[in-house]
Amino acid sequence: MTARNRRAAEGTSGTEPTIAAAKIARNATLGAAAIAAAATVATAVLTGPSETRGTATAADPGSGATRPATSRTAPGGSTATAPGTDDGQASSSPSSDADAVSLLDQPPVEGRRVWRPGEARVGHEQHSRVLTAEPGCARSRSTSYNVIPGMRSFHAHAAVTDDSISGSVDVTVLLDGEPARTVSVAPGDEAEVAVDLGSAFRFTVRVGSFCSEPYTVVLIDPVLAP
Questions:
Q1: What DSSP designation does 108 have?
Q2: Best-predicted range by mean pLDDT among 31-40, 61-70, 131-140, 197-206?
Q3: For 35-72, what is each residue's pLDDT tens digit?
Q4: pLDDT tens track for 87-106
Q5: End-to-end distance of the chain based on CA atoms, in angstroms?
Q6: Are 194 and 183 in contact (CB under 8 A)?
Q7: Cα gap 67→155, rounded to integer Å
């Protein structure tokens, strides 16, 4: 073996222990990192869930700007939304007058010339949406309507016009021919008429007899409501 070959062989055998030592050090470092990561996960599991916050955008009243709204995750997984979001708000569904149907807009099926749409002055106030009737002498007069499907009640105020002579008269609501509500009115009086229609098919509004004139009975704002 020449001197050059001997030196080369000695240089190669000298580097092998160094490479092996570097591999061992690298493996030890990776092992330590893995142990540290496992310890972090274990610590998080043992300490329990932490409070988390999510962001949403909500209007800031009065400024037109937006602000973050927060949500909290409670232990157990339920989420409660903080003020500023739409979640959890109750919808308002009060009954509306728009659902009611005016009797002035419904054609009667009987007694078309008894109760008629018109205007009247009652209690020094002018009313523009009324049904008016002039009682017959010695007999009652009535008008009948079919109940509109979905309507459950009838409501009005019975009265006598200010220019009528003194005296009282009865106003009666009948359901399928059976009296359901009767009120007695005179000039200066006003009586509420509220009737539950139930399962009735037809209802009738009857005005009692009154022989003297002038005398006009009115139903103020007569409506059917669901």
A1: -
A2: 197-206
A3: 565 555 445 444 544 443 444 444 444 444 444 444 44
A4: 333 332 333 467 899 999 99
A5: 116
A6: no
A7: 48
Question: 215 to each of 109, 118, 164, 209, 212, how far by Cα in Å?
Answer: 25, 15, 4, 11, 7
Name the DSSP letter for residue 225.
Answer: E
Q: How far apart are CA 149 and CA 187, in angstroms?
A: 35
Residue with tokens 């988390």: 52
Q: Are 140 and 173 in contact (CB under 8 A)?
A: no
Residue 132 phi/psi, 5° resolution?
A: -115, 150
pTM: 0.56
DSSP lists the bridge partners of residue 121 as 126
* The residue to which tokens 């001197």 are assigned: 3
- Do residues 197 and 153 touch, judged by C-beta distance below 8 A? yes
Output 196 or 93, whichever has higher pLDDT: 196
Separation CA 148–CA 154 (nearest Å): 11
CB within 8 Å of 60: residues ≥ 6 apart: 66, 67
Closest residue by Cα to residue 206 from 108, 114, 105, 126: 114
Residues 6+ apart with CB under 8 A from 170: 182, 183, 184, 207, 208
User: Whats the size of the chain, residue-wise?
Assistant: 226
Check whether the bond before 214 is cis (ω within 30° of 0): yes
The three-class DSSP label of residue 82 is coil
